[in-house]
Design brief:
This protein is of the alpha+beta class and about 100 residues long. The chain is built from 2 helices and 6 strands, in the order E-H-H-E-E-E-E-E.
Amino acid sequence: MLIQDIEALRRDEGIEDPELRDQISHLKRGDYVKITLVAAGSAVGGETVKVRITSIRGEVLRGQLVSQTSSPSLSDLTIGYPIVFRPGHIHSLSSRPARK
């Protein structure tokens, strides 16, 4: 599994998002973000998933997958799967999931 470097993709397209960078700088444990996962060797664009942040140490964020992936190539990633990522991987911020 790879995590898409959304910041590099935006930069390559000439897209600057200072508002997102500012929001990312204020993240804390328990916040939710969206990142895009790509299966290794996959030609498909990937799947955007919601992750709950469990730890932030400098530029290294740790979190857990909040919902089951729908892509067959990522089916081994279940709810609670640990993910280590960095700010450049964050696609967007997300709200807490609705309680059932």
